[in-house]
Design brief:
Blueprint: H1 4-39, H2 43-71, H3 73-93, H4 97-125, H5 131-157, H6 159-165, H7 171-177, H8 180-190, H9 197-202, H10 206-216, H11 219-233, H12 240-246, H13 248-265, H14 269-274, H15 276-282, H16 288-313, H17 318-345, H18 351-368, H19 371-381, H20 388-416, H21 419-440, H22 449-457
GO molecular function, one term: transmembrane transporter activity
Domain Major facilitator superfamily (MFS) profile: 10-445
Subcellular location: Cell membrane
Length: 467
């Protein structure tokens, strides 16, 4: 963007939404062992503590198709920030597991809104030359949130922390309570953000749309050319579900978005986030502190590798990153399953425990440089303007529904088909996703949203709509 101040504000505000997303993913990983100790909950109740957030996020993503269209991307993020604060406070004060479920759903609802609205807002506000990096920066903040949560969890898992702070409180309650701070930051930051010019134009507020474009682009000529492209996109008669029913080309982009989000989740990487301490317990780390320090290394690898993704998004492109990432994750999940198999059989030397941490980090690096940011980038790019809210609502809902399935089944799979077999299953998914990427995923780097839409609506093959 030409206007440096506007550029930084837009990126910062949307990235705070990513920070909340990451903090919530990371916090439950460290909090869960302490919740289990305090309430003595079953395996299935543990799965529901994790997955009720995804249930709420699924509902939030569905609802935000309407919310984002009616209120705009900016106000959607504001609603998400307020609800996250309510859900977080409720979790920190929950007297029992059932109250925890309710506020985890509220927390999840807000994350569903943020995960929908933030990448969409960034894609609509960013110039084509930096669009991939802007959305990858959002993903960077997700990873920083996860790392911050892991570090916070580690600190609060050490009893000395409470003596130093003069506190006598259950560890996991403080883990949740610290999330109030970024929630408040998001609310105040969003208030100063400009509205999306594409959303304004879709509501007939054309003067405002042109004004904002001129503020965020390289001069009036570039802004006016983009404005004319937006007006042409709005000439499509149908919108939303009506367009989905009437136009087979739009249906293709909707289904591609849903497949991309399914692929992102069934890489299995989020189980490394939600259940990292459990996985490292299986690997041979017996104390909660050892498990939490190992988990923090996972978060650190996630952050560092996301910097690679930011560099790749607008240089290498989306498709090469996905192919490399799925290969790395497939090999990594196979190797992790093999290591855990030997550890559980009692035939493994002590250093296999550390190898398990290292291989988990390799898996996360593969994810961070590929599916984690690139799927959100692609899903925000491939939908036509008149169907963008509906299309991204469908793909984001798929993301959270798939995420919920992962969270609600992982421990049961370990007990059912076995530890090694569970990780090998996810390895097989990753190898399948390489084929899907080659056959259907387009390369969209450096292409305007309106050009992608034109290629899609002209009936080009999905893998060619970025040409």
């Amino acid at each position: 963007m030409a206007n440096s101040k506007s550029s930084k504000l837009v990126t910062f505000a949307a990235s705070i939404a990513g920070l909340l997303f990451g903090l919530d993913i990371g916090i439950i990983s460290g909090a869960l062992p302490f919740i289990v100790n305090e309430w003595n909950i079953t395996i299935h109740e543990q799965e529901w503590v994790v997955s009720t957030m995804m249930l709420g996020a699924t509902i939030g993503a569905i609802s935000n198709g309407w919310l984002s269209a009616a209120l705009g991307r900016k106000n959607s993020l504001l609603v998400g920030g307020i609800m996250f604060g309510v859900g977080t406070l409720g979790c920190a004060l929950a007297p029992d597991i059932f109250v925890m479920y309710v506020f985890r759903v509220i927390q999840g609802f807000s994350i569903g809104i943020a995960s929908f609205a933030a990448p969409l807002y960034l894609s609509e506000m960013s110039d084509k030359s930096v669009r991939g990096r802007r959305i990858a920066t959002y993903q960077l903040m997700v990873t920083i949130g996860i790392l911050a949560a892991f570090l916070s969890d580690t600190a609060f898992s050490v009893q000395e922390t409470y003596s130093m702070l003069g506190l006598d409180i259950s560890n996991w309650r403080l883990m949740f309570a610290v999330l109030m701070l970024p929630s408040i930051l998001l609310i105040f930051t969003v208030m100063s953000m400009p509205k999306s010019p594409r959303w304004l134009a879709s509501k007939g507020r054309l003067v405002e749309a042109r004004k904002i474009l001129r503020e965020i682009r390289n001069g009036e000529r570039e802004a006016d050319e983009e404005y004319e492209d937006i007006i042409r996109s709005l000439s499509v008669k149908q919108s939303g579900f009506a367009l989905f029913k009437a136009n087979p080309n739009f249906r293709r982009s909707v289904f591609l978005g849903m497949v991309l989000q399914f692929m992102q989740q069934f890489t299995g990487m989020n189980i490394l986030m939600y259940y990292a301490p459990k996985i490292f317990e299986i690997a041979g780390f017996s104390s909660p502190t050892e498990q939490m320090f190992s988990t923090a290394f996972i978060g650190l690898a996630f952050v560092l590798a996301t910097f690679i993704a930011i560099a790749m998004a607008d240089s290498w492109g989306r498709k090469p990153a996905l192919k490399i990432g799925f290969t790395v994750m497939g090999l990594g999940m196979f190797g992790l399953g093999l290591l855990l198999k030997y550890v559980l059989e009692g035939d493994a030397p002590a250093y296999f425990s550390y190898l398990a941490v290292l291989v988990s980090m390799v898996c996360i690096v593969g994810y961070a440089m590929s599916a984690a940011p690139m799927v959100w980038v692609l899903c925000s790019e491939i939908q036509p303007l008149k169907g963008r809210d509906f299309g991204i609502a469908c793909s984001t809902t798929t993301n959270w529904a798939s995420n919920m399935v992962l969270g609600a089944t992982f421990l049961s799979l370990l007990n059912g088909i076995g530890t090694a077999q569970t990780f090998w299953m996810y390895a097989a998914f990753n190898f399948m996703f390489i084929v899907v990427t080659l056959m259907f995923v387009p390369e969209t780097k450096g292409v305007t949203l309106e050009k992608i839409e034109s290629n899609l609506m002209s009936g080009n093959k999905l893998r060619d709509i970025g040409a």
